[in-house]
Amino acid sequence: MTGPDRIEARRVAVREWMSEAEVDALLVSAAPNVRWLTGFTGEGLLVLGERGALLCTDSRYTVQAAEEAPELEAASDGGHLEQAIARINASGAGRAGFESGHVTYASFQRLQEALEGAEPVGLDDRIKHLRAVKDADEVALIRRAAAVADAAFVELRARIEPGMTEREAAEELRRQMVLGGAEGPSFETIMASGPNGAKPHARPGEREIIEGDLIVIDWGAKVEGYCSDCTRTVMVGEPDERQREVWLAVREAQVAALEGLRPGMEGREIDAIAREVLRERGFEREFGHGLGHGVGLQVHELPTVGQKSENEVPVGAVVTIEPGVYIEGWGGVRLEELVLVTEDGAEVLTLSPYDLQ
Amino acid sequence: MTGPDRIEARRVAVREWMSEAEVDALLVSAAPNVRWLTGFTGEGLLVLGERGALLCTDSRYTVQAAEEAPELEAASDGGHLEQAIARINASGAGRAGFESGHVTYASFQRLQEALEGAEPVGLDDRIKHLRAVKDADEVALIRRAAAVADAAFVELRARIEPGMTEREAAEELRRQMVLGGAEGPSFETIMASGPNGAKPHARPGEREIIEGDLIVIDWGAKVEGYCSDCTRTVMVGEPDERQREVWLAVREAQVAALEGLRPGMEGREIDAIAREVLRERGFEREFGHGLGHGVGLQVHELPTVGQKSENEVPVGAVVTIEPGVYIEGWGGVRLEELVLVTEDGAEVLTLSPYDLQ
To answer: Is residue A310 packed enough to be buried (19+ CB in 10 Å), middle (13-18) or exposed (0-12)?
Structure first.
């Protein structure tokens, strides 16, 4: 199966859902969903009919739409939503689905007012669920993103030394990713040194790294729209006993989850494996977030892997496994791998080296 | 007036609008609006009552909310929207306004279902209109952002030479902005060399800069959330006659608009000044976009300054003036200043040097 066939297969899956939801037309407006269903990376909306499809964009993207989605009809006159409405009206659709979690109330009002024959029908986020299972093209791009991020980390690791600020280190990691072929980082790098490591979402600041610091580094690259996501906690100097103890507890929790993961498990079951290890080590209260999340065109997508996640994690999902321990005033340790869920379990895609083992 | 008083004054203006719209409570969900009304930079929603206010956030942001908006009550248990609903229900509000252009249909449905006494009322984007007029704190931050971006440009300009790729040059500009104190760029830098300059929204690529190139550089810095936006078109080597002719036509169009701008003019009147100069020079068809847009917490905000913009440009607005000429196969020239609209006209905030004059 080649790239265009894979994209066509995605549209086939969405049309099955349309049939189930009894809509004759579907307005797709969330940008990652439009990209996933067309390959088009510019701004626009997609109208899917039972057979035809129309990409609603504007003159800035006419050439790009023809290059990226040559098999699709594209319109570029007038507003995106107005083009979509005109097409739905012309199609004679009786029920027109839209993404409830993305279309604004103002756009819904416009649909109500301007759709002539069709009733606008708010639908759930099924496309996000479909996107949770990656095809071979998507896995290949995520692998590339992870490899670029790994190579950049190796370069950075050799350069980290006392006196460097968090911001400088984060910038260097970014620079290495871009030089290595990334479109950019897949999210703002976390570079949390010493006590800053206690904040899971710390932003890189002006603190200078000192001997004896643990540094939580959470970063990812983006390649052709696909994200990677990885965390290492590195040691500047020799770890003391407490640092080693916390580090090893987090690593043990992570390895247990990586080994225990099986396709079809609910997210909360996978989370529980790691959480149980940290509970045994006395760090239950210090692990305050979920174990992981899906990664793809967005850095946070389905399935979720947290304490309350009832979604099953299917074969073909790409998820993070990222336990952490955060101690106010002391710092933190988080270790994160990005894995592909296979028939057998979890294949690790992130290959950055560990400081401790 | 100090910072907190300025933020309080913004809430007073919004409460006047609430009274006009006959709502007892207002749910503010668009992130730049929440930030503008509170100073809080994390994730959350704001519920404004006739007197009280509640910042609905979560445990990740409890400390930050207390630091950034100490005068506001903050909640952090449960989902943001659920907290807001509980507060509106407890307040006994009869009509609860929300931002139509931001709240999704799914959230609207949830409001309809869970609000007990209050009717949800979709409102227009008045807060965006209020944000179009900057106060002294905002102007000071935009000036700082512009100054950081100018200094970075001077550094970059000295380094541009044949053999450098667009991407390398864009990364260098970014690096200089961050080293100079920017939180980051305010948008993805455009670095469009030679024929790539014909695409107004070109992304920096692997093309190497060569002698004889014009390079369109469109960039900005972000400082404490506020954006700058500037464009220069630089020459590598000596310009030929055609390059000089196009460059001077664009500069003349820009200067005419900068000199002609008066507060209270409609956006389309300002656009027309520049467009007329380019028409006289034979480049009317080569100027395919609007003349400018407002800049603040977002890099594109109100007022708009385009051919169809009927909004008046008030004193205190910060807008771009950015005519351009784009010629397929040849390249392009765009020159952009960021200006503060004053009683007398336009004060230019961007001070990056020009190659040609």
So the answer is: exposed
- The pLDDT-based confidence of A323 (bands split at 50, 70, 90) is very high
Within 8 A of B109 by CB-CB distance, chain A residues are: 100, 122
Contact criterion met (CB < 8 Å) for B104 and A100:
yes
pLDDT classification of B3: cutoffs 50, 70, 90: confident
Domain A136-348 fold is: Creatine Amidinohydrolase (3.90.230)
Taking contacts as CB-CB distances below 8 angstroms, the residues of chain B near A188 are: 184
Does the domain at A3-127 match CATH 3.40.350.10? Answer given as yes
Tokens 């498990």 belong to which residue? A265
User: Distance between CA B123 and CA B33 in Å, rounded?
Assistant: 14
Question: Distance between CA atoms of A293 and A303, rounded to whole angstroms?
Answer: 6
Nearest residue of chain A to residue B171 (CA atoms) = A175
Chain B residues with CB under 8 Å of a chain A CB are 59-60, 98, 100-106, 108-109, 122, 167, 171, 175, 178-179, 184, 188, 200-201, 288
Note whether A299 and A219 are within 8 A (CB).
no
Determine whether the interchain pair A100/B105 forms a contact, defined as Cβ–Cβ distance below 8 Å.
yes
Model confidence at A357: pLDDT above 80: no
DSSP-derived pairing of the beta strands A318-321 and A301-305: unpaired
Assess contact for A151 and A179: CB atoms under 8 A.
no
Q: Do A109 and B100 touch (CB under 8 A)?
A: yes
Residue B116 CA to residue B111 CA, distance in Å, equals 9
For residue A190, the one-letter residue type is I
Each domain of chain A, given as residue ranges in start order, spans 3-127, 136-348
